[in-house]
């Protein structure tokens, strides 16, 4: 059951916010309830509830995570949403540049990353900016939740960019650097 097609392309508030509803709903709830939950992105959720939430989003119904009181459900829905997009948020077009970022001098990496993310289409720029800013809040609480930038990169790297090959290490390194430097990349 795909969570992405309906939500990513069509469900936007009338204010024209380019961040998909699923991302906003999950991140708002997690910002309020999940920042101090240990391993917030490392635990699974009830499979039946996950399917129910997916069905609601796919049929255009509102989802209120506060009513469900399950931080892990919101975290799982966010990861599934990112993983099931038809194309990753960081796009196939940037794949080679992202995988090869390690070959760029460390002095230039932030500038290159900023150029790469600014080349994304509006939705693809706004969504990672929103997500990474939130993940910065998560890592700021890492003493409690154990979700450091390295741990978050392992969880979210494969959900932000994928393709053929075995490039998970470079993708996770890019994601960790993006988390470390988000205040400069998205400035």
TrEMBL record:
Annotated InterPro entries: Rho_GTPase_activation_prot, RhoGAP_dom
Record's GO cellular component terms: cytoplasm
GO terms of biological process kind: negative regulation of endocytic recycling; small GTPase-mediated signal transduction
Rho-GAP domain segment(s): 5-186
SMART domains: RhoGAP
Pfam families reported in the protein's UniProt record: RhoGAP
Superkingdom of this protein's organism: Eukaryota
UniProt-recorded Gene Ontology molecular function terms: GTPase activator activity
Protein name: Rho GTPase-activating protein 1-like isoform X1
Species annotation: Parambassis ranga (Indian glassy fish)
Source species taxonomy: Eukaryota, Metazoa, Chordata, Craniata, Vertebrata
